[in-house]
TrEMBL record:
UniProt protein name: M23 family metallopeptidase
Entry's transmembrane regions: none
Pfam families for this protein: Peptidase_M23 (PF01551)
Native organism: Tabrizicola piscis
InterPro entries the record matches: Cell_wall_metabolism_enzyme (IPR050570), Dup_hybrid_motif (IPR011055), M23ase_b-sheet_dom (IPR016047)
Length: 419
């Protein structure tokens, strides 16, 4: 075999492919590149990490809402949402100046706003309670609370209808306040028995006022101005010239009674007579009538008289007695409080506020126990002779009677009915 070319003799295993004159510079350049790469990585590992940008909505105000359920409190709702105890305590303290937090009821609404997703960064909190009232808290510096009452429009309404069933059914059919069925039954108890005396076909007229909120809902309680029941043998009318004042009862145009119900809009929960006692058990004599109503509901004097007792009686709880003269005394028991200024010896008029419904004494729940005693003996408060006639109708009462008769289209069948 022929000899290899001379150039092939320089190719040995592991030999550099570069000319000997170029080997040192190439190797140095390659090593410098490796060192530079490691140096860059080392420097990069020592540099601080750049913060990741927050989502665009992270610092925007966030709104929250909760509906009060049975057993809830403001503190429990906010605590469940993560609001710190110190902020909850400060909010409750500020609210206490304008609202009693024990009055929160199921269905009330709480709204609050935080500056970010952090529940500790509250900027505003509002309670929406009865009748569209808002209790607002602001957290700009010192926490401040204010009560915001919505504007209301006084609406005058009247209805004339024919009774072909219960008074309650007739009222609800016309979208009239069903609570008037209770009020009128109590106010006219001495003149008519709504269960027995109504045969069907009687004409009933009603005039009242109510407060309407901007959204059309009705706030507060309706205020009775006039009612008329046309029976086959007589006409009964009620006139109230003041929302919280006494009510005059007319029979065939003659004023026969001037009094006030001890409480309006309440359910008659127990009548006069023997009954099973709700707390002690067994059949016992019930010496008055009971009206079931929420704690704090206003209680009024049913007639003019003098306060002879204002304090606590065993079993009755917080109690007020009023002497009306002629041996007649009315008692108002289980009260939560006695109205400011009411004390023994003071004179009161029919319709004057004297206290508020409570659950003091021997009771199973909040109610007003109303009792009438004649010469120390309990009598049925619904007896028309239980309270003596004390005042006759005033000129204002007679003018109001004529006005409401005209508005409801009533024409008297006899002359000189106002006697």
């Amino acid at each position: 075999m022929g000899a290899l070319p001379a150039s092939s003799t320089s190719m040995k295993t592991g030999a550099s492919p570069f000319p000997k004159s170029a080997e040192p510079s190439v190797e140095r350049s390659f090593c410098q590149m490796i060192r530079s790469a490691f140096l860059i990585l080392a420097v990069a590992s020592l540099a601080p990490l750049q913060a990741v940008a927050d989502p665009p909505t992270a610092h925007l105000p966030m709104a929250f809402e909760a509906i009060i359920a049975a057993g809830d409190t403001l503190d429990s709702v906010l605590g469940h949402a993560g609001v710190p105890p110190t902020i909850r305590a400060e909010a409750a303290l500020a609210l206490s100046g304008v609202y009693d937090l024990t009055d929160l009821r199921p269905g009330h609404r709480i709204e609050w706003t935080a500056a970010s997703a952090d529940p500790a960064s509250l900027t505003r909190l509002s309670l929406f309670v009865e009748d569209g009232v808002e209790i607002a808290l602001t957290f700009d510096g010192l926490i401040a609370a204010q009560r915001l009452d919505p504007p209301v429009r006084v609406m005058h309404r009247s209805e004339t209808l024919t009774l072909n069933g219960t008074l309650y059914d007739a009222l609800t059919a016309r979208n009239a306040p069903e609570r008037f069925a209770v009020d009128l039954t109590a106010l006219l108890a001495g003149q008519v028995d709504f269960r027995r005396d109504l045969k069907g076909g009687e004409t009933f007229a009603l005039v009242w006022q109510e407060d309407q909120l901007p959204d059309g809902t009705i706030a507060g309680e309706p205020r009775l101005s006039y009612a008329r029941l046309e029976l086959t043998d007589r006409v009964l009318e009620l006139v109230a010239t003041e929302a919280a004042g006494p009510i005059i009862v007319f029979e065939d145009g003659e004023a026969v009674q001037r009094s006030a119900a001890p409480i309006l809009g309440a359910r008659l929960s127990s009548v006069f007579g023997r009954r099973n006692h709700p707390v002690l058990g067994g059949v016992r004599m019930h010496t008055g009538i009971d009206y079931a109503a929420p704690v704090g509901t206003e209680v009024s004097a049913t007639g003019a008289g003098r306060v002879t007792f204002a304090g606590t009686i065993r079993g009755y709880g917080t109690t007020i007695d009023i002497d009306h003269g002629g041996g007649v005394v009315t008692r108002y028991a289980h009260l939560s409080e006695i109205a400011e200024g009411v004390r023994e010896g003071m004179r009161v008029k029919a319709g004057d506020e004297i206290g508020a419904v409570g659950a003091t004494g021997l009771v199973s729940g909040p109610n007003l126990h109303y009792e009438v005693r004649v010469d120390g003996r309990p009598v049925d408060p619904k007896d028309q002779d239980a309270l003596p006639e004390q005042e006759i109708a005033s000129a204002d009462d007679l003018n109001a009677l004529a006005t409401w008769r005209s508005e409801t289209g009533f024409i008297s069948g006899t002359d000189g009915e106002r006697g």
